[in-house]
Amino acid sequence: MTDPVSPAQPPGAHLPDHPDFLWDDPDPRASYDVVIVGGGGHGLATAYYLAKVHGITNVAVLEKGWLAGGNMARNTTIIRSNYLWDESSGIYEHSLKLWERLEEDLDYPILFDQRGVLNLAHSLQDVRDSVRRVNANRLNGVDAEWLDPQQVKEVCPIVNISPDVRYPVMGATFQPRAGIAKHDYVAWGYARAAHEMGVDLIQNCEVTGIERAGDRVTAVRTTRGRIAAGRVALCAAGHSSVVAAMAGLRLPLASHPLQALVSELLEPVHPTVVMSNAVHVYVSQAHKGELVMGAGIDSYNGYGQRGSFHIIEEQMSAALELFPVFARAHLLRTWAGIVDVSPDASPIVGLTPVDGLYLNCGWGTGGFKATPGVGDCFAHTIAHDKPHRFNEPFTLERFTTGALVDEHGAAAVAH
Amino acid sequence: MQLIPCPWCGPREESEFHYGGQAHVAYPEDPAALTDEEWARYVFFRDNPSGPFAERWSHSAGCRRWFNAVRDTRTHELLSVYRVGEPMPALGEVNS
Ligand SMILES: Cc1cc2nc3c(=O)[nH]c(=O)nc-3n(C[C@H](O)[C@H](O)[C@H](O)COP(=O)(O)OP(=O)(O)OC[C@H]3O[C@@H](n4cnc5c(N)ncnc54)[C@H](O)[C@@H]3O)c2cc1C
Ligand SMILES: [Zn+2]
């Protein structure tokens, strides 16, 4: 549940202070054992587990902008593991278990708040699919419940359960262990811990080329010079296709703008997280009090980190129907990230046809929740040159073999 | 809201249109001869450039016709629109 805020305190007063300084800002060295491309949550977590679990510390994380300024800074921070298939349960539940002890592990506040997530159903087919997913989740040891509209109202009193709206709430799945965390703190916690173990975090360093000798990766070219690398790990989220093309790899991905927005600060009104795949809106109330809302992706490919206005209009009309109490809230700002979407709405994590080059991409709209899990599994993949059992199903080859992990129903645009 | 110039109707609001992905992806000439790998390439792999991209649009809430466009995916700017069957304009022509 939301942290209690006494009325005497201004909003946000209960949050930890911002740190002055968590890592230094080194120049790149001439060579590293492992070069990680992309300093978002996934890149930082991978570096942390490489150092901590596998003792590999001669590592650089290269970030073209500022640390964790990509999707890591732009997402709506929803964490859950109630996906349909066994493969997804494996990696997302592994991640959720790591989230549950990450604060102690990093010795850093991340404000992981297990306030639960409701996924609403608006049609008979939604209801059937949702109940099926609850059963699948339980078989996989993932906490899940099916709630009728009245029970939805008990969990989140401001949800409109009137049957007279265009998309009536016919029930919801509920995962009590799901929740939100403070995304910036997560990045800073990983960054500080990785830095302390000797990892170089290098900002303003764009990778512009990947060098190969035959089938083996040898170096990256960057805006700050050439860096030789024993192994290269891609964690470039929205830009995965662009970066992989530098090594001659073509990926089955499309990059799309994905938007979110926040309201002004409000008193605590929204105790959980509510998501609706059908009407494309998801809402939680941030620790400080803003309503945080996510939308659907823009239909077309885009790298502009700017989405279309009509998406926000649709999202707001859906939000108002579900939460009439929001009618007088003011919108403060909107923004977009770039997400790389795969054909089966599942990630691609593992080896590539190029020796020493490892791929982590295709998390689309939902990779924040995977940050600890993928960091752990990807570090294992890099260290041992073979996949961890939890990322083994998420190969690039599955698009040829047909072993797809079709998560459109449980993932698609909802996070 | 972005205006998209339909080659038949002229500029209309983006929300009247439906996106159809990459243009000029030809159906395999001899489908029975394709390997699994080649089928995968045809079904799942599309270009995803940061920059000019030739793609299909349908004016679904207007004349309901399909057409092609070259759009810069970094700025969303439409560099050219052209009818199905017309060749993709060279980028030099597009930018002039
Ligand atoms: C609006 C929005 C809402 C979302 N909501 C959720 C949510 O609620 N729950 C959830 O689980 N997920 C959510 N996501 C998805 C999630 O944010 C991403 O899947 C996840 O952050 C991707 O991993 P990352 O953190 O490493 O990516 P990023 O933080 O994007 O990291 C990739 C980094 O690579 C850098 N980079 C790119 N190219 C290069 C290069 N050539 N050289 C050097 N660096 C490069 C980028 O600058 C960037 O910092 C959301 C995304 C968006 C945009
Ligand atoms: Zn038209």
Q: What does this protein structure show overall?
A:
The complex is a heterodimer of chains A (415) and B (96). With 415 residues, chain A is α/β, with parallel strands linked by helices. Chain A is built from 11 helices and 18 strands. Chain A has helices spanning 41-54, 71-74, 86-100, 102-106, 124-139, 149-155, 183-196, 240-245, 309-322, 371-384, 398-401, and strands spanning 31-37, 59-62, 78-79, 117-121, 145-147, 171-175, 179-180, 200-202, 207-213, 216-222, 225-234, 254-265, 273-276, 281-285, 290-297, 331-341, 348-351, 357-361. In chain A, helix 1 (41-54) runs parallel beside helix 7. By secondary structure, chain B is of the alpha+beta class. In chain B, 15% of the residues lie in helices and 34% in strands. In chain B, strand 1 and strand 2 form a beta hairpin. Chain B is globular. Chains A and B meet through helix 11 of A and strand 3 and helix 1 of B.
Structure keywords:
heterodimer, A: 415 residues, eight-stranded mixed beta sheet, 11 helices, B: 96 residues, two-stranded antiparallel sheet, 2 helices, binds zinc ion
Small-molecule binders here are:
flavin-adenine dinucleotide, zinc ion
Approximate shape of chain A: globular
Radius of gyration of chain A equals 21 Å
Q: How far apart are the first and last residues' alpha carbons of chain A, in Å?
A: 20 Å
Sheet/helix structural class of chain A:
alpha/beta
Mean pLDDT of chain A, rounded to whole units?
94
Note the beta-strand portion of chain B: 25-35%
| Beta-strand segment tally of chain A | 18
Tally of DSSP β-strands of chain B: 6
Succession of helices and strands of chain B? EEEHEEEH
Oligomeric organization of the protein chains = heterodimer
Structural class of chain B: alpha+beta
The percent of residues in helical segments of chain A reads 25-40%
- CA-CA gap between termini of chain B: 25 Å
Low-confidence spans of chain B: none
Low-confidence stretches of chain A: none
Order of strands across the widest beta sheet of chain B? 3-4-5-6
H/E element string of chain A?
A: EHEHEHHEHEHEEHEEEEHEEEEHEEEHH
Principal-axes shape call of chain B: globular
- The biggest beta sheet of chain B, please? 4 strands, antiparallel
As a whole number of angstroms, the C-alpha radius of gyration of chain B is 15 Å
